[in-house]
Amino acid sequence: MESGEPKPVPEPLVSVVVVSRNVKDLLLDCLTALHQGTDVPFEVIVVDNASKDGSPAAVEEAFPHVRVHRMRKDSGFGRAQNAGLEMATGRFLLLLSPQVMVGAGCVGELSDFLLVRPDIGAVSPRLIGSDGGLDEGARRSFPSPGLAFYRLVGLSRLFPHSKRFGRYNYGHLPADRPHEIDAGSSACLMIRRAAFAKVGQFDTAYFMYGEDLDFCFRLRQNGWKVFYVPAAVAERHSGRPTLQEAARHRYELHSSMWTFHHKHFAEDMPAFGNGLVWASIWARWALLSGWSAVSRRLAPGD
Fold first, then answer.
1. What is the pLDDT of residues 42-59, one digit of tens each?
2. Which of 19, 69, 181, 298 is buried deepest, with most CB atoms within 10 A?
3. What does the domain layout of the chain look like in residue ranges?
4. What is the rounded distance in angstroms from the CA atom of residue 97 to the CA atom of residue 60?
C-alpha cells in the first residue's frame, strides 16, 4: 500500500447499540470507556430516543465515526433498539446502556465466549452496581408465578442464597464462576447475530423493562443457551431520576411484569390464578408508590 492511501477498516466483530434519552454526560462517558477498553474490531450505533439535551450533536462532535440514529419521538426502548439493530453489521450484537461503563477487555471476553460456544445465543457480564456490589440484573431466572410470589412477600430478600427462594437472581451460585442463566440484562448483553435472526426483534409491547427477559425467553424456546460470564466486567452508574421519572419507571416496570406473564404463562393458568397474579403485581405497585409518597413527606427539609 502506497503512503497516503487510507488503511482498510476491519469488518466489525461486534456491533454496539446504545439507546439513549436525555443522559448526555453519561452517554459520553459510556462511549469513552467503550473505546478505551475494547480491543476487538467494533462499530457503534447510538439510537437517540428524542433527547432534548443535545446528546446527538455532542456524540457526533466527540465521536465522529459513531453512527447516530435519531428517533422522531420517544417510542420506547424496544422499538429504538430494533432500529439500531437493523443498522448493525457485526457478527455479535452488544446491547449497552449509557449507564454502563465496560471494563478493559469486557467486550473481548464476551465475544470470545461466543466464538468458542456456538450453542450459546447470548452472554451477560459481571455487572457491578453503584454500591460496588453485583447488579442482580446481570443474571436472572424467568419470573414464574412462584418466583414472583417469593419476591413479593420478601422471601427472596430474606434468603438470597437459597436455591428455592433466591433462584430469581441465582444467589445460590457463585458470582465469580460462569454458569447458564435464563436471562441477562439489556443494560449490557451480547447476542449472537444468528440467534437474533432466528428469534426476531424485541417485542415492542414492552415500552420500558421486560423486553430483555422476553427476548431471552424466546432464545431458549428456540434452543439457544444464555450464559453469565464473570471474566467480563462492567460498571453501572445509576443516576437519580426525578420524582416524575421514578413514578413512570415504577409503573412501566409493573406493566411489563403483567405483559410478560400474560404472554408466556397466562394460557396455562386458570382465570383465578391469572387474576391473582394481576392483583399481586398492581398491589406491589400501589404499595411501592405509597411508600415513595410517604418517604418524600418524611424527608428532611420537606
1. 999 999 999 999 999 999
2. 19
3. 14-139+175-236, 143-167, 243-293
4. 18
